[in-house]
Amino acid sequence: MRAAMLAAARKFFAARTVLEVETPVLCAHGVTDPHITNIGVTLGKTLHWLRTSPEYHMKRLLAAGADAIYQFSRVFRNGEHGARHNPEFTMLEVYQAYGNYETMMDLTERVIVDAIGSRSACSA
C-alpha cells in the first residue's frame, strides 16, 4: 500500500512538473527550532546532525532558481519516541516558488486525495 501511495504521489507531481529532489541527510548544523531536538553523529572529530527536515536545503534550491520541488525524505528527531512515534520517519516536503499559502494548501489537499484514492484502489 505504501509503495502504491508513493508511486501515485510521484505520478501526481510529475504531471504538474514538480521536480523530485534529494538533499543531504547528514548536516553540518542542527535545527534552530527550540521544540525539536537533533540527533548528533560524530564523524572523526566533527559533530554533524541528522536532519529533522529537508527544509533548509530545499529552500536553498529555490533560492538557486528551482521552481517547484518535492522530496520524500527520512528525517530524525531525538526525544520523540513512543508506541506510535519513532525517532526516524518519512516526511513529504513540497515547495513552490512564487506560490502563497493557498497554492500550497490546494496542492497538499490534491496530493493527499490522490494518494488516498490510490490506496483504496490497492485494497480493493
Explain what this protein looks like in three dimensions:
With 124 residues, this protein is an alpha+beta fold. The chain has a single domain (2-123), classed as BirA Bifunctional Protein, domain 2 (2-Layer Sandwich), CATH 3.30.930. Helices cover 37% and strands 26% of the residues. It has 3 helices and 6 strands, in the order αββββαββα. The chain has helices at residues 2-15, 55-63, 101-123, and strands spanning 19-20, 26-27, 39-43, 46-50, 68-76, 88-96. The strands form 2 sheets. It has a 3-stranded mixed sheet, sandwiched between helices. A 3-stranded antiparallel sheet has the order 2-4-3, with no helix packed on it. β3 and β4 form a beta hairpin. 12% of the residues are buried.
Q: Care to give the gist of this entry?
A:
With 124 residues, the protein is α+β, with helices and mostly antiparallel strands.
Task: Detail the topology: elements first, then pairings.
Elements: H1 2-15, E1 19-20, E2 26-27, E3 39-43, E4 46-50, H2 55-63, E5 68-76, E6 88-96, H3 101-123
Helix pairs in contact: 1-3
